[in-house]
Task: structure prediction
Amino acid sequence: MSAIIELRGLTKQYDTVRAVDNLTLTVYEGEVFGLLGPNGAGKTTTILMMLGLVEPTDGTARILGIDATREPLKVKQVVGYLPDDVGFYDDLTGLENLVLTARLNGQNDRDAEAAARALLRRVGLEAAADKKVGAYSRGMRQRLGLADTLIKKPKVIILDEPTLGIDPEGVREFLQLIRTLSKEEGLTVLLSSHHLHQVQAICDRVGIFVDGRLIAVGTVEELSAQIFADDRFSVEVAARPLDDRLVEALQRLPGVTRVDVRRETDGGGEAVVRATRDVAADAARAVVAAGAELRKLTRRAYGLDDIYHRYFEGRA
Amino acid sequence: MRRSLSVLFRKEVADHLHSWRFNILIALIALTTLASLYTAAQTIRSVVPQADQPLGDIGLFLKLFTTTDGKLPSFVAFVGFLAPLLGLGMAFDAISSERNKGTLVRLLSQPIYRDDVILAKWFAALAVVGVFFLALGFIVMGLGLFVFGIPPTAEEVLRIVFFLLVTAVYVAVWQSLAILFSIRFRQAATSVLAGLSVWLFFSLFYPMIVNLIAPITGRGTVDDVLREIGRHQFLSRLSPVTLYEEATTILLSPDVRALGPFTLEQAIGAIPTPLPFDQSLLLIWPQIAGLVAMSVVLFGLSFVLFMRQDIRGR
Ligand SMILES: Nc1ncnc2c1ncn2[C@@H]1O[C@H](COP(=O)(O)OP(=O)(O)O)[C@@H](O)[C@H]1O
Ligand SMILES: [Mg+2]
Result:
């Protein structure tokens, strides 16, 4: 696997804000990489530096080996970029907007129109091709935006918050479309988002980006192993009665690091048991041994959301 | 011309031609100027038969542009007044509208030079305005032909074409200023107000200020007066309005032989005949150069500002 995007010590200092702080990151060929972080984390700034649209204070951004600061035009020839809150010429049709982009990328009129029609079909806008973009819905605009990034036949596409403002159903479809296109065309994709669970499903790897710093990179499984080294496993136990004796017994189980309890009025309750190993069977035995009624037992795997929240807990 | 520049140029020209704003501005100018032409033609027709000079000798066609019936301003006066508005009106939101629509980032993420974006806007507006004024000029000449029944002389045609070109350059100055403001101000309304302020300043207040700081008292020796006039003229000529007025006066009134004071030496040798075209052109060359320079400087400023600007978001 060869490196397609290489960021080395990338830094951007605005007057008082360090928007991006010494970012080093490699994205490999054919990958779908998710850059995750809350608003103001520096995602957009990073992306703009990768396109040579913002000059880094320090460090380099290379795409396909081309330095984005020194040769922005060459980078823009091979990178399709979907800005957050993308804008189109509302008084032109979807097709005309795409053709304009194609022509700015050096395609002649006939090829441009053929390519634009083909792409509109791919993103499901065939019927709206000759409608003015002013009449497009938000979801349609995003689809058109995706087609717009693809029309230059890029090697890499960079999507900034592509799911912003689309309804949940639309998000799933849209992300699936990105995934399909990237696998079919062998595209490398970098997308940014602050909605973790949305992009979790389609990213091969993710990077967690907070306050300009990349604090973790890897697959979702790797990240959860990294962050939850102490308590990778968790079991939710609902029992009645859930008294102090039972809670103590749960805490004494080997490998348990923490037990959080939520009691109910009928004497029962729910305990979240965190541990370094799978303690589901032991917990069940403890409940039975205490003479209580076991109402529910669920193993929980950590998702990106939990990972993400962990980071904010840690920061707070 | 770079390919991307020509692609953008075509888009901009199409934008102008389809925009309500441009068509309204054009209609406004066409209507007012044609009205003034009509009255000018009427006035000239009622005067000429009494003159003992044969038709054609007195720059009849040029008079079409400068004559007024005393009620409606002349064609030149109208154009001089409306040209800045046309320049400002066409370009005050050139960049800010792209920015606010979110299309600027998308444009700049294509493999094109950043300056192509403003160059295309500048050339497109100028081309559209230039073609419009040339068309207007030929309509006027056609009208003259119809009214007077004789064709314009070659020299008249040349003078009129140059007058129209100078007008296009004058529009370009205001347009460059408007582009600069459209880069500097994100709100179109701020940009319009800034543009109108500059226009009001130069057309109303600047002449007063010049009179105040460099009054022509006419007292003292000839040298003193000449120096006074020189200073007054120099200051006035820092205004594009003055430069345009001087240039059009010389172009359309061949009997005006000089700008500013006539010294005795100059007057003695002078024969009271109209100035030939090449002499007129020579006389106003500095004015034309000045207008072009203003445009270039303003454009340069826009360029520098735009290159350094953060293009992010809306
Ligand atoms: N032009 C600018 N001048 C000063 N600060 C800026 C500028 N642009 C962005 N910032 C700051 O940089 C930080 C990162 O912003 P951004 O990259 O837009 O974050 P994200 O895209 O992750 O929401 C924010 O704190 C923002 O206020
Ligand atoms: Mg952002």
The CA atoms of residues 9 and 221 of chain A lie 26 Å apart. The interface with chain B takes residues 44, 48, 51, 53-54, 73-74, 76-77, 79, 81, 83-91, 100-101, 103-106, 148, 152 of chain A (CB under 8 Å). The radius of gyration of chain A is 24 Å. Residues A 43-44, 84, 160-161 surround magnesium ion (ligand 2) (CB under 6 Å).
